[in-house]
Amino acid sequence: MPKSERKILLDFEKPLAELENRINQIRELAKDCSSVDVSEQISQLEAKATQLRQEIFNGLSPVQKLQLARHPRRPSTLDYIQAICDEWIELHGDRGGSDDPAIVGGLARIDGRPIIIIGHQKGRDTKDNVARNFGMASAGGYRKAMRLMEHGNSFGMPILTFIDTPGAWPGIEAEKMGQGEAIAYNLRAMFHLDVPIICTVIGEGGSGGALGIGVGDRLLMLEHSVYTVASPEACAAILWKDAGKASQAADALKITSWDLKNIGIIDHVIPEPNGGAHANPLQAAENLKKAIVSNIEELTKISSQERRKQRYQKFRSIGVFLET
């Protein structure tokens, strides 16, 4: 990994990075002075680093988890596809003149099973992020997603969606192209698909941009991902006219995986490696693949009619309201 990538640290990661740097420095010094045995000192510091890592990542606040979900080195849709798929063929275009790079999708095999995979795709650097519009899809992206879903439905292939977006593209041009209609169409159409649908929030799941590919039989979340009706910054700006109160909004919105699991929004939390998915992407991918394969096996045992019924009831039962 290049040094430039290693230097991307969140504030709460810095004490751990300093301790790990100290361990590395002692190792380097020991090489130059082989007569000095520092193995016990290194062992003690490594144990301290392990404990510190657990304390940090087990006690993250909602706004810290939001920062982790937005980490520039966090694995993306294409990263997971490369890690968990036996084969992958990306398909392009919505057959209406658009090919939105903020949403990728195509045909794949996982353990020999043919599937359709669709997901938001952010960039790795500023240039790539601009090209992919920071993972904010346009109307054409959601139409491309639905074209691929209908293809999978025609051939009996399960559908996997990976959610990682701050929201749909909020530009005026997006509304001119029918952004709201495209998302609404997807919401309705996904309820009627016959094949199993598994949706996984792998990073940041924001607003209607996430929901546009988020209706499924199972909704999974990686442990340090977030899922919210609006970003904490937007919520704070709306409620208090102060985006600086994002931390307060994040607490109130219940955006973390375990909060959403406890209130029945999501079905399963996928554990991440100690230090977050970016600390060990291959382990994160292995955990993700295990959860996906397990859920596909469960869902394929259910008839398509029963799956559609359960899918409808799942979303119909989310939320409560009071009449006064």
Automatic annotation (TrEMBL):
It is found in: Cytoplasm. Residues 44-298 form the CoA carboxyltransferase C-terminal domain. InterPro entries: Acetyl_CoA_COase_a_su, ClpP/crotonase-like_dom_sf, COA_CT_C. It is an enzyme of class 2 (transferase). PANTHER family: ACETYL-COENZYME A CARBOXYLASE CARBOXYL TRANSFERASE SUBUNIT ALPHA, ACETYL-COENZYME A CARBOXYLASE CARBOXYL TRANSFERASE SUBUNIT ALPHA, CHLOROPLASTIC. Belongs to the AccA family. This is Acetyl-coenzyme A carboxylase carboxyl transferase subunit alpha. The lineage of its organism: Bacteria, Bacillati, Cyanobacteriota, Cyanophyceae, Oscillatoriophycideae.
